[in-house]
């Protein structure tokens, strides 16, 4: 359980126990609630004996993200009953379909801007997130890309939550730093404390100016005739603290210039020998020259990554998004 602590999960179980007890006292027939209460008491007992988080069949650690989602689980994925495995597979398939429907069109044009991205989960669902929003009646384009901590369904659920939060806030119109500040409070109030998200929120205007707020995310690359340069982070990850200050950086893109955003599934990918792809290799690739389109930037980056990995399996979600000012 690298991403959570026993004390946090204990507090969640105690809170769940109190709610169940309160519900049972109001119900004349509550066998299901009593069964759930017994499961919570069993989890608390396993904490006291030191066996919490271990599969009762193989005695190996249960997947951490599953414990966060449900601290009462007692078996790892490999030792679920057959009907439980089928139900889990169906849940993953449904979650993956829902997640794909939240994504924008892969290639788009918004006034002077063209965009292209690739979203490649390492598993059925992803904690990565990207979105492109142009409010009705406005010329500005909001560009969003982020990465929720953790993996699996819990991270995917929080990704969908962030998607909804930003869609709602953008409809009201505001600067990226203010949007991220408000989203931070909403995310911190609604998400479990072990989770946070790194993200970039940018607003591209019809003048070529792009206002960027980076909340602890890998720095985007700005592509110009002078090469590729990074736009550094301006704040802490979203959800790290209830109250955080965020600021924005404004860059200007001339026709043909671009902005490259990515999650760490790109730079932290490894080859067969365990060597990391790295930020420097991305920068060198992007600095070789200007590209014909946003889609060609994405294609060249992924082709170079594939050549580097040489068939090594991917272990993390990868999202790559390019915004380019049309010539």
Explain this structure to me?
The chain is an alpha+beta fold. It folds into 2 domains: 6-80, DksA, coiled-coil domain (Four Helix Bundle (Hemerythrin (Met), subunit A), Up-down Bundle), CATH 1.20.120.910; 97-325, Phosphatase 2c, domain 1 (4-Layer Sandwich), CATH 3.60.40. Helix content is 40%, strand content 20%. The chain contains 9 helices and 11 strands. The strands form 2 sheets. A 6-stranded antiparallel β-sheet has the order 1-2-11-10-7-8. The protein has a 5-stranded antiparallel β-sheet with strand order 3-4-5-6-9, covered by helices on one side. Strand 7 (221-224) and strand 8 form a beta hairpin. Helix 1 (6-26) packs antiparallel against helix 2 and helix 5 crosses helix 6.
Topology:
Blueprint: H1 6-26, H2 31-49, H3 64-69, H4 82-101, E1 107-110, E2 113-120, E3 128-133, E4 141-148, H5 152-172, H6 176-190, E5 197-204, E6 209-215, E7 221-224, E8 227-230, E9 249-252, E10 258-262, H7 264-267, H8 279-286, H9 294-309, E11 318-325
Antiparallel strand pairs: 1-2, 2-11, 3-4, 4-5, 5-6, 6-9, 7-8, 7-10, 10-11
Helix pairs in contact: 1-2, 5-6
Task: Give structural attributes.
327 residues, alpha+beta, Four Helix Bundle (Hemerythrin (Met), subunit A), Phosphatase 2c, domain 1, five-stranded antiparallel beta sheet, 9 helices
Oligomerization state:
single chain
Distance separating the two termini: 50 Å
User: What's the CATH class of the largest domain, please?
Assistant: Alpha Beta
The figure for the number of domains is: 2
Helix content: 25-40%
- Structural class, from secondary structure content? alpha+beta
Report strand order across the widest sheet: 1-2-11-10-7-8
Number of strands: 11
CATH fold-type name of the largest domain: Phosphatase 2c, domain 1
Rg computed from alpha carbons, rounded to a whole number of angstroms: 22 Å
CATH second-level architecture of the largest domain: 4-Layer Sandwich
Strand and helix order: HHHHEEEEHHEEEEEEHHHE
* Approximate strand percentage: 15-25%
Shape: globular
Looking at this structure, what is the CATH superfamily of the largest domain?
PPM-type phosphatase domain
